[in-house]
Amino acid sequence: MTPTTEQSNAYRPDALVVGGGIAGMQSALDLADQGLKVMLVERGPSIGGHMIALAKVFPTLDCASCITAPKMSASSHHDNIKILVNTEVQGIQTLNGVHHVKLLKKATYVNFDKCIGCRLCEYACDAEYPDPLEEGLGAKRAIGVAFTNAIPQKAVLDPELCATCGTCARVCPTDAIEFDQQAETVIVQTDAVVVASGFALNSLNVKPQYNAARSKNIISALTMERLLAPHGPYGRVLRPSDGKIPSSVAFVQCAGSRDASIGVSYCSRVCCMYAIKQAMLLSGALPIADITIYYMDIRAFGKGYEQFYQNAKAMGVNFVRGKVARIDPVDDGDLSLHVETTEDPENFLQEHRHDLVVLAQGMLPDWDMSGTTPVQRSSDGFVATPMLTSPTLTTAQGIFVAGVAAGPKDIVDTIAEAGAAAMQVSQYLYQKRSANVSESQTAVLVG
Amino acid sequence: MAMKTLTAQQKQALTTMRERIGGISEEKKQHAKQLKAARKAIIQMLAEKPATAPDIAAALNMPSDEALWHLTGMRKYGQIIEAGEEGDYLLYALVVSDQAAATSH
Hints:
The complex is a heterodimer of chains A (about 450) and B (about 100).
Chain A: E1 4-8, E2 15-18, H1 22-33, E3 38-41, E4 56-57, E5 62-63, H2 64-77, E6 81-84, E7 87-95, E8 98-105, H3 120-124, E9 128-130, E10 139-141, E11 143-145, E12 155-157, H4 167-171, E13 183-190, E14 192-195, E15 199-201, E16 218-220, H5 221-228, E17 248-252, H6 271-285, E18 290-295, H7 305-314, E19 318-329, E20 335-341, E21 349-354, E22 356-359, E23 363-365, E24 399-401, H8 411-446
Parallel strand pairs in A: 1-13, 2-3, 2-14, 3-6, 14-24, 16-22, 17-18, 17-22, 18-19
Antiparallel strand pairs in A: 4-5, 7-8, 8-13, 9-10, 11-12, 15-23, 19-20, 20-21
Helix pairs in contact in A: 1-2, 1-8, 5-6, 6-7
Chain B: H1 8-20, H2 26-48, H3 53-60, H4 64-76, E1 80-86, E2 89-94, H5 98-103
Antiparallel strand pairs in B: 1-2
Helix pairs in contact in B: 3-4
């Protein structure tokens, strides 16, 4: 077990933001621009969240990293924002209106003050493993910078993968490698907290009848995003089982949500639109491929979304209304989809063959804070927001929520809500501090 | 790439870290051994002519997805490049340059 040291942090931010994804960064920037000191805490080695890994966004088809990277850069250069990466929030305790946030700063085995991000350690490292940031398709080494445009551009050593050969320290030009670095537990005091802890997807294997465990060619939507991204693992769309350029791609909607049998009865709200977006991008990347979306109903509810859907149909994307009952791996790595459609009463049980299948998994909360924070969760596991008219207020005073931590939503709504959370925080801090000033003035007058 | 000698303090820290993570597991050793052997075999094969992931998988008797993963890693770290297509598959070729020499392991 890795030993830790515990200490109190002298830095006292006005607000602490949990999560360095798009919601966390937006809240942090909006607060910092108002002159408030913010601590942005991210569990991973870089800020940017899921969004920095996406190819493009709907319905504008703007490049996702072109939106995210400037916010990452602005956050890291802002005088009022202090970023902690590789740091987990272990609990929040509120005493007399002050939140005491317990942080675990994991050992990175690299002195960030010395590391210049040259990646010589990464190039010299011999230990190579599947990269979770590439959904396992790409390779990472035991030490290295998380990804090309990661912020901070600092190497991190993963002790689980390290062969302890010492080569990284031998090639490091600044002697930044510190094999004896230890994890630290730090208590930070702050007046407000914004929970922007984002989402995770449920497992590809949550529905055993889809047989994802038996085929490399049944992939998640996030894997498809990486395949479509220009900086993705293959640099183009290839089938993971053998590198074949796919000629027939299927999207199976509601494969992990709107299904009480797997405990996710709610709609994940973004799957229809990202499937349409990915289908349109695939039409460009693979002009002769057949692309089919199997759906129960298309939920295109935002501004410009319906037009986006119609454009996809006009581009030749095939929409089949029905439910995929079973997926069977067949020869050559292909997949046979057994579908019950509503479109042809004479032939409603159909079988279609594709060489790559994308499952629209359900969105789940990514941080179980029950028992460690005063924040309550709703029955679906997301942060409870009891006031319908104030969706960023939680059940705990001074703790706010933004983005998917409160429930599934798209990027547009996430950014809007993150801005709203920042305004709620600044209003809360103003009221709290005005009340404190008023109390102290009364005390002085009363004597 | 210039290699320095580890200081006594670094060697001690490395030993401490090795002990802290419970030594190098058999699984890690096997992985390192297989990785080295597979990469060497792929480099030898590509030195003769460009090949696809299924070609490499068949020649080296490994699953196609594993061959593709090796090629993906080698491409990322500058050892190979795409060299056209053969049917539905991409061909990969060895990079022979100072860059590859600097980044190869």
